[in-house]
Protein backbone atom coordinates (compact mmCIF):
# COMPACT_ATOMS: atom_id res chain seq x y z
CA UNK A 1 0.00 0.00 0.00
CA UNK A 2 1.87 3.12 -1.19
CA UNK A 3 1.45 6.19 1.00
CA UNK A 4 3.08 9.36 -0.29
CA UNK A 5 3.18 13.02 0.59
CA UNK A 6 3.81 15.84 -1.83
CA UNK A 7 4.14 19.59 -1.83
CA UNK A 8 1.88 21.08 -4.47
CA UNK A 9 2.19 24.60 -5.86
CA UNK A 10 -0.61 26.22 -7.80
CA UNK A 11 -0.52 28.82 -10.51
CA UNK A 12 -0.98 32.38 -9.23
CA UNK A 13 -4.36 32.91 -7.55
CA UNK A 14 -5.35 29.26 -8.19
CA UNK A 15 -4.60 27.66 -4.81
CA UNK A 16 -8.24 27.03 -3.88
CA UNK A 17 -9.01 25.64 -7.34
CA UNK A 18 -6.07 23.25 -7.00
CA UNK A 19 -7.22 22.25 -3.52
CA UNK A 20 -10.64 21.36 -4.95
CA UNK A 21 -9.10 19.30 -7.76
CA UNK A 22 -6.97 17.37 -5.27
CA UNK A 23 -9.91 16.69 -2.98
CA UNK A 24 -11.91 15.44 -5.98
CA UNK A 25 -9.16 12.85 -6.55
CA UNK A 26 -9.57 11.60 -2.98
CA UNK A 27 -6.32 13.06 -1.66
CA UNK A 28 -5.90 14.45 1.82
CA UNK A 29 -5.00 18.13 1.45
CA UNK A 30 -3.44 20.28 4.16
CA UNK A 31 -2.88 23.98 3.41
CA UNK A 32 0.30 25.62 4.64
CA UNK A 33 -0.18 28.26 7.32
CA UNK A 34 2.43 30.68 5.98
CA UNK A 35 2.98 29.91 2.27
CA UNK A 36 0.87 29.32 -0.84
CA UNK A 37 1.57 25.60 -0.87
CA UNK A 38 -0.51 22.51 -0.19
CA UNK A 39 0.63 19.31 1.49
CA UNK A 40 -0.96 16.40 -0.35
CA UNK A 41 -1.16 12.89 1.12
CA UNK A 42 -2.08 9.93 -1.07
CA UNK A 43 -2.92 6.40 0.04
CA UNK A 44 -3.80 3.79 -2.59
CA UNK A 45 -4.10 -0.02 -2.45
CA UNK A 46 -1.47 -0.88 -5.09
CA UNK A 47 1.56 0.34 -6.98
CA UNK A 48 -0.41 0.31 -10.24
CA UNK A 49 -3.08 2.61 -8.77
CA UNK A 50 -0.34 4.86 -7.39
CA UNK A 51 1.10 5.29 -10.89
CA UNK A 52 -2.33 6.17 -12.29
CA UNK A 53 -2.90 8.68 -9.49
CA UNK A 54 0.49 10.31 -10.08
CA UNK A 55 -0.36 10.81 -13.76
CA UNK A 56 -3.67 12.39 -12.78
CA UNK A 57 -1.95 14.64 -10.24
CA UNK A 58 0.59 15.83 -12.79
CA UNK A 59 -2.18 16.55 -15.29
CA UNK A 60 -4.28 18.78 -13.04
CA UNK A 61 -5.22 22.09 -14.62
CA UNK A 62 -4.16 24.33 -11.72
CA UNK A 63 -0.94 22.58 -10.63
CA UNK A 64 2.30 24.40 -11.34
CA UNK A 65 4.69 22.06 -9.51
CA UNK A 66 4.50 18.79 -7.55
CA UNK A 67 7.35 17.54 -5.37
CA UNK A 68 7.46 14.16 -3.64
CA UNK A 69 8.43 14.68 0.00
CA UNK A 70 8.01 11.25 1.54
CA UNK A 71 6.98 7.76 0.48
CA UNK A 72 6.20 4.54 2.31
CA UNK A 73 5.04 1.21 1.01
CA UNK A 74 3.63 -1.48 3.26
CA UNK A 75 5.34 -4.66 2.04
CA UNK A 76 2.49 -6.83 3.38
CA UNK A 77 0.09 -5.61 0.69
Structure characterization notes:
By secondary structure, the protein is an alpha+beta fold. The chain has one domain: Alpha-Beta Plaits (2-Layer Sandwich). 29% of the residues lie in helices and 39% in strands. The protein contains two helices and four strands. The chain has helices at 15-24, 47-58, and strands at residues 2-10, 28-31, 38-43, 63-73. Strands 2-3-1-4 form a four-stranded antiparallel beta sheet, with helices on one face. β2 (28-31) and β3 form a beta hairpin. The radius of gyration is 12 Å and the shape is globular. The termini are close together. The model has no long low-confidence stretch (mean pLDDT 93).
Short descriptors:
4-stranded antiparallel β-sheet; Alpha-Beta Plaits; globular; 4 strands; alpha+beta; 2 helices; 77 residues
Q: If you compute it from the alpha carbons, what radius of gyration comes out, rounded to the nearest whole angstrom?
A: 12 Å
Reading side by side through the largest sheet, how are the strands ordered?
Answer: 2-3-1-4
Distance between the termini: 6 Å
CATH superfamily: Lrp/AsnC effector binding domain/regulation of amino acid metabolism (RAM) domain
Strand content: 35-45%
Give start-end ranges of low-pLDDT stretches: none
Mean residue pLDDT: 93
Can you tell me the CATH topology? Alpha-Beta Plaits
How would you sum up the major sheet?
A: 4 strands, antiparallel
Overall tally of structural domains: 1
CATH class (first level) name: Alpha Beta
